[in-house]
Amino acid sequence: MSFSSDSPDLELVHRPRSGQTSLETRRYLINIIGWSLCTIAFLLVAIPMGDLILTIAVKGASAMSLKIFTTSSNGMTGGLLNAIVGTLVLSLGSLVFAVPIGVGGGVYLSEYGQNHLGAAIRFLADTLTGTPSIVLGYFAYITMVIGLGWKFSVLAGSITLAIMVVPYLARITELSLRRVPTTMREAAYALGAKDRTVALRVVLAAALPGVMTSVLLSLAISVGETAPLIYTAGWSNYLWTGRLTHAPVGYLTYVIWTFINEPSEKSHALAFAAALLVMLVVLTINVSVRFILRKRT
Amino acid sequence: MKNLTPFRLSLAGLALVIPCALISIVFFLTTYSWKAIGFNGFGFLGTINWSLGNLYANPVHQHGYLVPPGAKYGILAFIVGTLLSSFLAILFAVPISIGTAMFLAEKAPANLRTALTMIVELVAVVPSVVFGLWGIFVLVPLIAHVIGPAITATLGFIPFFNMNNSTGSGYGLLAASIVLALMITPIIATTLYDALDQVPRELRESAYALGATHFEVVTGTMLPTVRVTLIGAIVLALGRALGETMAVLMVSGGALNYLPGTLFTPISTMAAFILSQLDSALQDPSEMAVKSLAEIALVLFVITVIVNAAARLLARGTIRVIQL
Predict the structure, then answer these.
(1) I need a surface site. Which of A137, A152, A160, B323 has the fewest CB within 10 A?
(2) Residue B57 included in any domain
């Protein structure tokens, strides 16, 4: 006997019959009204989300042109080439710092972290994911931009983004590694393999799709961030020159934030074009990751 | 001691970067803002008075600190703005999240469930600045022309709900709260959805056997078993709302030194204020303004760490690492 919510028979039980008491009618009505409210609640989330995607897609697509990809911004007009390059440099740069630390930390938590130290690191990693990004940005401003004298720069921006995504990388890596069956570890040890071989060549290799997922999600987070970059990466109308310090760099989310407050329609169009590019990256990564994960389970 | 191989130690070293990052955030924010903490005292948290002073005059000595004449740093208005917008966001988000989770777990057609759930999950990954953009273009005009007048028409006899007592631009407390509510809803909804999915089948079946309606089964027997997880998720969402920066900055209108008198009054939150004020604070040659901003960051950090730690302790292991 199944009481799954999909069985249509279930509601028949509650259909009003002749001769039912007022209590039965009331419970029947509450059932109907309650589920209607739940559906409305879902629509209150889904409709704004749909409107958001539609607004960005329509306004962003109408602002798209080849010029956006071939020229840099000039004041509040021009193209987005400098911002696109800057976002790529900052995001990929953050992965350079974050992936070794995050994945290494994740391997530690999964393989050797079943102790108090592991529990503490896990807890603090989750706490770090809840730290407001502007606090991280300000911390990076006083330590790297002022303290180390790097000024607004690619390096300061990338490291700030890396601090943001490391806890996600570590925790998702840990969860993927833990899904690898213990028997695989035991088999490797029984063949005489050492810790390093078991952890890196057996467990990490088996969990590689999960680890790649965490790297992609970190990339999506980096591409969409704004607050931690404003006082670390700054802004520049020019293409990135290749300097790691002492040179500010442009990025797409900055365009969204500032150009929308300008009166000219041209700046608004650029802001929506930038928003469309950011949303395309973020949604593509998140949707494809979900499809890959669902297929595997 | 056979566990302390170089390989394991180097992995532990990588993992320890995370606690080190947290400790250095506290350390550097505290040392950098130390002078400001001394100069501002407890009045920092309790007064509504943020003024950089006369930046063109020579700095004067006040209580042993060198500051521009007339400089005062009191952030009560921003604390109130932060708490009020987050509180309203939670107020909107909790019923909507519970309804959404119940709909997805129990009522959504089976063949659409994955797709509908994904819509809610994807709300969580939309960048904050994109929410801000949507807020400026869609939500703010909607509040100025539809929602605001409607609330004023029905509840306008209470001054707090009367839009005519504010600028009426649409930018303000309500816009910030609605955007925040939308951003935190997936956190609560997906956590609750997962938890409802884990409720033992026997519990649901025995409730049906007693003659309960489907709605009674969910609200009467399933929700009570997951209430600790639900509270944990709400606290976690509160932590997110308190620290949210870009979207709030873009739709809140930006207020300085006054408390919101109505639902439509512009506000500033601590996070948004730090971001919007650094440029002007840098004009202060005594650096007291920049250090006071660091003190705000420190206060905000302490608040969010406490809230997040509470959430993780409440709902241990039941909250998703990432909204996947």
Answers:
(1) B323
(2) no
Largest CA-CA distance found in chain A, in angstroms, rounded: 83
Which tokens sit at B60?
């004067």
Q: What's chain A's length in residues?
A: 297
Q: What does the alpha-carbon distance between residue A107 and residue A98 come to, in Å, rounded to a whole number?
A: 14
For residue B45, tell me if it sits in a domain.
no
For the four alpha carbons of B209, B101, A132 and B175, in that order, the dihedral sign comes to negative
Q: Is A57 helix (H, G, I), strand (E, B) or coil?
A: helix
- Kindly report the CATH number assigned to the domain that includes residue B183: 1.10.3720.10
Is B23 an 8 Å CB contact of chain A? no
Report yes or no on B256 lying in a domain: yes
- Residue numbers in A near B107 (CB within 8 A): 5, 35, 38-39
Percent of chain B with pLDDT over 70: 97
pTM given for the model: 0.91
Which residues does chain A have within 8 Å of residue B189's beta carbon, measured at their own beta carbons?
A: 45
Are the beta carbons of A56 and B245 separated by less than 8 Å? no
Measured between CB atoms, does B184 come within 8 Å of chain A?
no
Domain-located, residue B19 = no
Over residues B51-90, the pLDDT tens digits come to: 888 778 778 887 778 888 878 888 899 999 999 999 999 9
> Is some CB atom of chain A closer than 8 A to the CB atom of B29?
yes
**Residues B282, B276 contacting (CB under 8 angstroms):** no
Tokens of B292: 């006071």
Domain count, chain B: 1
Q: What residue ranges of chain A have pLDDT lower than 50? A: 1-12
Q: Which of these, A56, A134, A91, A237, lies nearest to B132 by C-alpha position?
A: A56
Looking at this predicted complex, what is its ipTM? Answer: 0.91
Q: Which chain B residues are within 8 Å of A118, Cβ to Cβ?
A: 15
